[in-house]
Amino acid sequence: MIEIQHLTKDFGNHKGIFDVDFSIQRGETTGFIGANGAGKTTTIRHLMGFLHPDRGQALIDGENCFQNAEHIQSKIGYLPGEIRFMNAMSGQSFIEFMAQMKGVTDLKRANELIHYFELDTKVDIKKMSKGMKQKLGLVLAFMQDAPILILDEPTSGLDPLMQKKFVEWIQNEKKRGKTILMSSHLFEEIEHTCNHIVLIKEGKILVNTSMEEMQKKRNTYYEICFSSHKDALAFHQKYKKSNLQDHQVVLLWNQDIQTLLKELSNYKLNNLHVYDQSLEDFFLSYYQGEAI
């Protein structure tokens, strides 16, 4: 449904995107992860038809996004990373104005969204906080009930309660079969909403995988509390990449668990805690150039 084929836009000085290539199937929710300036917004702007690539192409339903921008935009609920509004208008007036522009004649869904995100639309936009403007952007993105959603940092400026409500809304949109591309730097948000992940660094794709496959690759942390510092030190010296603090060793392990348990049987332990590597840690290891 969404295809990005060897897309390149070179702004010079190593800025831009380079040979970006990935696709999103109908009904799939893809998380687009990367540091600020990595190329997420530039890629998204190509999908919206705002930029012409130097090489490659962006397609939605087989149509070229730049050549058929107006038609393609009619299918998309879009939230830009940097939202600009008409400050002289109230929130309600702007929603009605945008509904008219988008051909939305029934404001029932818009009103549902206003209530859901607890937005006071009587307030003039120029007096709105960052969080209120973000809520307004979400109302505008979702109100036409488009089959495709492209959301650039959708929870920026939202408090934790509203972030949670956003995640619940996206989960419901997934159930309704929407195709969603969502850029975010909040790994927990991505983990709770997406079934596919694309990681971009310095304009190039580093990871393009399903959440299921990524889960299989994630390591496990073992927090081992030894009965003595001597034992903890002896274990740490065998596993140099572990972290030692007094009687405790934290070990990142992705090999056969029986091998580790056999080794631990040689020591007296006070406690053992096991927890999975976080999504954030997993992707930071790619950014830092470590082997997974």
UniProtKB/TrEMBL annotation:
Gene that encodes the chain: ecsA_1
Gene3D superfamilies registered for this protein in UniProt: P-loop containing nucleotide triphosphate hydrolases
Record protein name field: Multidrug ABC transporter ATPase
InterPro entries recorded: AAA+_ATPase, ABC_transporter-like_ATP-bd, ABC_transporter-like_CS, P-loop_NTPase
Domain of life: Bacteria
Pfam families linked to this entry: ABC_tran
Ranges where the ABC transporter domain occurs: 2-227
Record key words, sorted: ATP-binding, Nucleotide-binding, Transport
Family affiliation: Belongs to the ABC transporter superfamily.
Organism (species): Faecalicoccus pleomorphus
A molecular function GO annotation: ATP binding
Bilayer-crossing regions: none
